[in-house]
User: Which sequence fits this backbone?
């Protein structure tokens, strides 16, 4: 449940879904506004919870790739539904925020 309140987790999952397999630097470039420290901790948390798989290749320099696991792929439709809901109701959400800021 912690991942649903964390915008970076959802963005990482969506980014991996649209690109299949990505290296850390590719993710870092693709996700605007995320720090390397936040990306590292988000990937570790998603890997620990089984949403992302990490593959390390014994090469020089070492190559590490990330992709969605089966669990992450199963979660994707739910995240897409939430994103659609946010898009549909963003006007109402913004109105509510503006009303409280006054």
Assistant:
């Amino acid at each position: 449940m912690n991942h649903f309140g964390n915008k970076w987790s959802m963005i990482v999952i969506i980014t991996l879904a649209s690109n299949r397999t990505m290296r850390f630097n590719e993710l870092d470039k693709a996700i605007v506004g995320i720090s390397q420290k936040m990306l590292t901790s988000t990937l570790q948390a998603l890997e620990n919870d089984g949403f992302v798989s990490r593959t390390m290749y014994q090469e020089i320099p070492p190559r590490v790739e990330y992709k969605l696991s089966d669990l992450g792929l199963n979660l994707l439709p739910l995240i897409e539904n939430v994103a659609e809901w946010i898009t549909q109701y963003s006007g109402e959400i913004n109105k509510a925020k503006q009303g409280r800021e006054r």
In short: The mean pLDDT is 90. The first strand starts at residue 21 and ends at 23. The longest helix spans residues 70-101. The CA atoms of residues 46 and 52 lie 5 Å apart.
